[in-house]
Amino acid sequence: MASKKGKRYTAAEKAEVLNWVNDYNVTHGRGGVANASKEFGITQLTIHNWVRQGGAAMSGTSNLRVAPNHAGILRQLADLLDEISQRETELAKLRKEYDGLRKKL
Predict the structure, then answer these.
(1) Number of domains in the chain
(2) Which domain holds residue 43?
């Protein structure tokens, strides 16, 4: 039994679908993936995976929008919080050293 390869989508095609999903969700609140699946004839699983991956590589067209990659944003927030914590620890050490030297005056 020969395996059937799935269709490969270009970045522009992915961007078009993801923009459609995003616009639909903005207007209706939810349901963009299901309706895009019907509209474009692409499985919901495929579209959902694109949304989770943060969208397709975008062309230079500025009017295209991609659904946000929430996992990526959450990862960036966590990384920033870690960096802030490290810098606050460093700052506390510097303030302690500063206060110690100031007391010596």
Answers:
(1) 2
(2) 9-68
